[in-house]
Amino acid sequence: MCQHLGREPRKWRKFGRWGSVACRAMRMSRLFLRTLRDAPADADVESQRLLVRGGYIRRVAAGIYTWLPLGSRVLRNVAQIVREEMDDAGAQEVVLPIAQPLELWRQSGRDELYGPLMFRLLDRKDTGFCLAPTAEEVITTTVRNEYSSYRDLPVNLYQIQWKYRDELRPRFGLLRGREFLMKDAYSFDAGHEGLRASYRAMYDAYHRVFERCGLTFRTVHAQSGEMGGDVNHEFMAVAAVGEDDFVWCRACDYAANVEAARRAEPAPAQSGPAESGPAQSGRASTDADLPAMTEVFTPDLPGIDGVAQFLGVAPSEMLKCLAFETDDGRLGLALVPGDREVDEHALGEAVGAGFSFLDDDGFARRPDLPKGYIGPHHPGIDIVLADPGVLARRAWVTGANRVDHHVRDAVVGRDFDPHRVVPLVTVVAGDPCPQCGAGLSVDRGIEVGHVFQLGTKYSKTLGALYTDERGEQHPMLMGCYGIGISRVIAAIVEEHHDDHGICWPAAVAPYGVHLISLPGKGDAAAEVRARSDRLYDELRAAGVEVLYDDRDASPGVKFADADLLGMPVQITLGAKGMARGVAERKVRATGERDDLALDAVVSACR
Ligand code: ATP
Ligand code: MG
Q1: CA angle 65, 68, 71 (to 5 degrees)
Q2: How far apart are alpha carbons 53 and 35 in whole angstroms?
Q3: Interval 437-459: pLDDT, tens
Q4: Alpha carbon separation from 458 to 109, 353, 574 (Å, rounded)
Q5: From the CA of 461, how far away is ligand 1's center (Å)?
Q6: By C-alpha distance, which of 497, 477, 475, 466 is closest to 564?
Q7: Are β-strands 92-93 and 99-101 bridged in parallel, bridged antiparallel, or unpaired?
Q8: Does residue 233 contact residue 524 with C-beta atoms inside 8 Å?
Q9: Which of 310, 322, 517, 522 is most buried (CB neighbours < 10 A)?
Q10: 281 has a pLDDT exceeding 70
Q11: Is the pLDDT of residue 132 over 60?
């Protein structure tokens, strides 16, 4: 059954195949496969539904799956793409143990840190082991035991290995499993410059991996979490079912976590206050054409929308003034346009200290600050911070610092002076990209990869030292780099599917071509079957990876399965077509169809 067609490895390389190992072709009559009409009741995302319905995976326990033949081919294809890019980037493949002595994890202090996230077991001598959730401890001691000089470095070792995390909520199928396939790489350098270069090589390789996998993704600067360390980036695949919100630009590579995202600053409506330091009020002369600030009676209207409606202005014409207190006792105001929200992270950065918005107790202590009626011209405020959007409008409607009253025509620089102009608003979809100006998107993302500059966190505690040119010892500088291979597969399906099933990108598809034979019941049945068999043999001989639906099933069943399974190209041969000497080709992703002369099928599929 397996054809060991080891020819043309370079050609297959670009498709991420194990050219000399993989079975290139398969008859569905023999394939270990049952497709399901309905998704299991517990499936909560489309990737899980389709992969189970398509007979790619089967659930064995929460977050633990069996990979059936088609699934295991996808797994192997994605792993192979990762392997090739790691090898090209100079990393060397190793295989580290899954069962690891807990003692090692105690030495690094992570035994406690991982807590119940780690699967633990005892051997017959009562020695503690864990099922590895990641492998910094083992790899660091491995390198420590072999290498000790700057001349040995740099080195980057990777493995593609099952990882185990007893996740609190295993869910979304392969997206958050308890057993999952991860590529983890670890770099060791003598010096920061080397670490930066190793990191860059991995960062670039990751881009190539995810591009080849057909994912729409962006990188974001990330918090380091349990790994510790400094610089790190997450690779986020755009998907509605992702667990993290993030902001990204479709036109360029800009992306950021929602808290860290910024928009291109709106242009000031006129010469505004200085970017830092007290704003100048010398602009009063240029504002002479504007009416003076006047108070209006707005009874029982402490909210933006109510006042805006009452006064016949848009919420964006109102100035929102949020009062806050810093931990060191200063009183502040954050000014943003009325239709925008204040981003607490940005405000915290601008304040440079801990702060909290005034709550009811705070307002009770400051009767001079009437909640819902605060204006930026209040004399008793220590820090007045304004978003650049505040300078984009000349005159504002805002609070009068008096209950039941607002003011019209409050002019920046004339009636109030922010101490500083800093980005404060939460970025929303459509805001201009700070890099290129195109409209930003706010979406959810799946973390498919993560790269860290660990520094000396593990090399210090586990004693991975190198001797420099002068004979002095230093801890090696480490980076670690993960890709969730099984999660990537789910992310690919999330992006590449339609109502009928999966639409695999060619580089990861289990087979490139799905050959469908429709002999029917008529006189030509035997002939169609024979011609289909021949076509299958020709495709195999040409090295095309082909799945052949030679089953005794109805056209409806065969078409539905072909769409569900999602090979990139379907070739259908029936009696009518054969009479005309053609087979029909359908491109799964686009639904485009055309006829191919029977003797041109092989070259078209190659
Ligand atoms: P998450 O924040 O999603 O829990 P993590 O940041 O803990 O992930 P890392 O330690 O960075 O994960 O692991 C490297 C990669 O392994 C992740 O980027 C992700 O693609 C994958 N991964 C992590 N946990 C899981 C899981 N439970 N199931 C599937 N893949 C996972
Ligand atoms: Mg991570």
Answers
A1: 85
A2: 5
A3: 999 999 999 999 999 999 999 99
A4: 10, 31, 63
A5: 24
A6: 497
A7: unpaired
A8: no
A9: 517
A10: no
A11: yes
Residue 133 CA: nearest ligand 1 atom is 10
What pLDDT does 316 receive? 96
Structure token pair of residue 578: 């054969």
For residue range 297-336, list pLDDT tens digits in order.
999 987 899 999 999 999 999 999 999 999 999 999 999 9
Backbone angles phi, psi at 535, to 5 degrees: -60, -40
Q: How far apart are CA 28 and CA 2, in angstroms?
A: 14
pLDDT digits (tens, 9 = 90+) for 354-399: 999 999 999 998 889 999 999 999 998 999 999 999 999 999 999 9
Does residue 82 carry a pLDDT above 90?
yes
DSSP string, 298-314: -TT--SHHHHHHHHT--
Closest CA to 209 of 527, 490, 483: 483
Mean pLDDT of the chain, nearest integer: 92
For ligand 1, residues with CB inside 6 Å are 134, 165, 167, 176-177, 180, 182, 225, 447-450, 482, 484, 486-487
**Nearest-atom index, ligand 1, CA of 184:** 14
Q: What are the structure tokens assigned to 135, written together?
A: 């492998």
